[in-house]
Design a protein that fits this description.
By secondary structure, the protein is α/β, with parallel strands linked by helices. It has a single domain (3-277), classed as TIM Barrel, CATH 3.20.20. Helix content is 43%, strand content 15%. It has 11 helices and 10 strands. It has an 8-stranded parallel sheet. The chain has a two-stranded antiparallel ribbon with strand order 1-2. Helix 1 (24-37) runs parallel beside helix 2 (51-61), helix 3 (81-95) packs across helix 4 (112-124) and helix 7 (196-205) packs across helix 8. The chain starts with a strand and ends with a helix. NADPH dihydro-nicotinamide-adenine-dinucleotide phosphate (NDP) binds at residues 18-20, 43, 134-135, 156, 182-188, 193, 208, 210, 225-230, 233, 236-237.
Length: 281
């Protein structure tokens, strides 16, 4: 598996497997199948309520811990470094792991400064190999970078052909922050799988739309974590390392940007209230 080197020297697979919106039973089966298909990086979150199922699939895989790259996410905590450390222990216990490869602050809300300080401590203690954030807009990311000791290794943000984050990606690269795409297929919204430009490129390369989309992001230097419950699609989504898109192909996909989210805007005050009202340990 091709990897990218994070800002602290850790190697992260450029393609992993996401488990958002899967219940425990689906998660255990999907992660088992994904590991068998060759995925080595798994992306979950305390908020997905499926960390235990991910842990069971890992244990049943027979793979050694060192072969895997496991990410989970800290949800908004009620103030304090102590609660962050407690949430970290709860996540690792559910996963059955004694360290994480990547731990992300899931949302840019709440007392994330104290969360970040606790994560810096856990990183220094060797409990987390790399720490990062998710859904952080540019201003909050830079604020965190300039006012803390450790620069986030990763920022996981909504990124797909309709929301490409090109300028933001340049900024992250300049700051040494790896951009990771969530919802690389926009969950199929806006007819992504039937998009005429993507379909034409897929036909031209003898590939699927999904493969073109993943290849386009990997060529841009963006980490991807597609989700599927189907074994055939797991194999398809993994099979993107033996073809290349041309500069012209990349420009055609660049033209698909619509300039807004396919889901919700983290700067929308109602979204801030809704996501801040939730709690997961
Ligand atoms: P994706 O963009 O990965 O889309 C998943 C959808 O695409 C599913 O309906 C799946 O269907 C379908 N699909 C997958 N592969 C193919 C294929 N080859 N051909 C056709 N259809 C396909 O959505 P996600 O929201 O799951 O995003 C991926 C991951 O990103 C999540 O699982 C999660 O880990 C992370 N994420 C993080 C967020 C954050 O706030 N940090 C927010 C959202 C996601 P089927 O399963 O039936 O194959």
């Amino acid at each position: 598996m091709q990897t990218t080197t994070l800002n602290n020297g850790i190697e992260m697979p450029v393609l992993g497997f996401g488990v958002f919106q899967l219940d425990a039973e689906q998660t255990e089966r999907a992660v088992s199948d994904a590991l068998e298909a060759g995925y080595r990086s798994i992306d979950t979150a305390s908020g997905y309520r499926n960390e235990e199922a991910v842990g069971r699939a890992i244990r049943n895989s027979g793979l050694s811990r060192g072969e895997l790259f496991i990410t989970t996410k800290l949800y908004v905590q009620n103030a304090g470094e102590e609660n962050t450390k407690r949430a970290f222990e709860a996540s690792t216990e559910r996963l059955g792991l004694n360290y994480l490869d990547l731990y992300l602050i899931h949302q840019p809300f709440g007392d994330y400064y104290s969360e970040w300080r606790a994560m810096q401590d856990l990183h220094k203690e060797g409990r987390i190999r790399a720490i990062g954030v998710s859904n952080f807009p540019a201003d909050r990311l830079i604020d965190l970078v300039v006012n803390n000791e450790i620069t986030p290794a990763v920022n996981q943000v909504e990124t797909h052909p309709f929301r490409q984050n090109c300028d933001y990606h340049e900024l992250m690269c300049a700051e040494g922050v790896q951009m990771e795409s969530w919802a690389p297929f926009a969950q199929g919204k806006n007819n992504l799988f039937g998009n005429p430009t993507l379909t034409a490129l897929a036909e031209a390369h003898g590939r699927s739309v999904a493969q073109v989309v993943l290849r386009w992001m990997i060529q841009r230097g963006v980490v991807v974590i597609p989700k599927t419950v189907r074994r055939d699609r797991m194999a398809e989504n993994l099979d993107v390392f033996d073809f290349s898109l041309t500069d012209d192909d990349m420009k055609r996909i660049a033209g698909l940007e619509v300039g807004s989210s396919q889901f919700f805007d983290h700067a929308d005050t109602d979204v801030v209230r809704q996501l801040s009202a939730l709690r997961f340990d």
